Every structure is written in C-alpha cells, then in structure tokens.
From TrEMBL:
Keywords: Membrane, Transmembrane, Transmembrane helix
Keyword Transmembrane helix listed: yes
NCBIfam families named among the record's database cross-references: nitrate_rd_NapE (TIGR02973)
Record-given protein name: Nitrate reductase NapE
Organism: Roseibium suaedae
InterPro entries in the record: NapE_TorE, Nitrate_reductase_NapE
Keyword Transmembrane attached: yes
TM spans (from-to): 12-40
C-alpha cells in the first residue's frame, strides 16, 4: 500500500480548485439550467398569465 502524505500545498491547491473554479462553474450551470427550463416551458406552455 502506498504511503500518501498530504501537504499544506496540496490542500491549498484543492481549496483554490473548489472555491475559484468548481463552485462558480456549478453556480452558473445551475442558474443557467433553471433559466433554460423556464424558457423552454414558456415556449411549450405559453407565457405566464396573471
């Protein structure tokens, strides 16, 4: 079995990857996906009536 050592540098790289890259990309994907679903539903079902 390999002896894996995690250093502060590895943890910092992982944090930057998660906080700077993955979290904003995931937020944009979720908001964009929700907007796309609303847009497509309005194309199929018509605009909201009030």
């Amino acid at each position: 079995m390999e002896d894996v050592t995690h250093t502060k540098r590895d943890e910092r790289i992982a944090f930057v990857l998660l906080a700077v890259v993955l979290a904003p990309a995931l937020a944009v994907a979720i908001v964009g996906g929700y907007g796309f679903i609303i847009w497509m539903s309005q194309l199929v079902l018509g605009p909201p009536t009030g």
